Amino acid sequence: YDRLLRIRALRWEYGSVLPNTVQFHMSAEEVEWFNRYKKSLATYMKSVGGEEGLDLTQDIKPPKSLYIEVRCLRDYGEFEIDDGTTILLKKNSQHFLPRWKCEQLIRQGVLEHIL
C-alpha cells in the first residue's frame, strides 16, 4: 500500500511521463497501475473546469511571480509559449518564461528554476 502511495505521488511530482531512472525500479504491475492512475486523473481533469478542463497539476504552490528564470539542464528542442513564440531549449541556456509553462519541464528534469 505504501508503495502505491509513492507511485501516485510520482504522478504529481513528474507529470504523466516518468523518467527512465524511476521506471527502471518499478515492476510491470506498478507501471500499469501508474498508467491507469494518470488516465483516471486526466479524465477527471477534463470533466471539470469547462471546455479546456482544469489542470490540477499546475501551480502546486501559489506563484510569487508569473515569470521565472530557468536554466535548461539538457537539450530539449523547440518549446512554444502562449504568444506563439518558439524558444530553443539547449543545455545550459537560460530563459525568462511563464511559470505555468515551465513547471512540468522542471518536474521532468529538463529545466531548473534559478533562484
From TrEMBL:
Residue span(s) of domain GINS subunit: 3-48
What GO cellular component entries does it have?
A: GINS complex
GO BP terms = DNA strand elongation involved in mitotic DNA replication
Q: What UniProt keywords are attached to this protein's entry?
A: DNA replication, Nucleus
Signal peptide, first to last residue = none
Localization (cell): Nucleus
* Occurrences of domain DNA replication complex GINS protein PSF1 C-terminal (ranges): 64-114
In terms of domain of life, where is this protein from?
Eukaryota
- Keyword Nucleus found: yes
Nucleus found in the keyword field: yes
Q: What PANTHER family does the annotation carry?
A: DNA REPLICATION COMPLEX GINS PROTEIN PSF1, PARTNER OF SLD5
The UniProt function text for this chain reads: Required for correct functioning of the GINS complex, a complex that plays an essential role in the initiation of DNA replication, and progression of DNA replication forks. GINS complex seems to bind preferentially to single-stranded DNA.
Assembly, in brief, is: Component of the GINS complex.
- Record family assignment: Belongs to the GINS1/PSF1 family.
In Swiss-Prot or TrEMBL terms, this protein is called DNA replication complex GINS protein PSF1
Source species of the chain: Merops nubicus (Northern carmine bee-eater)
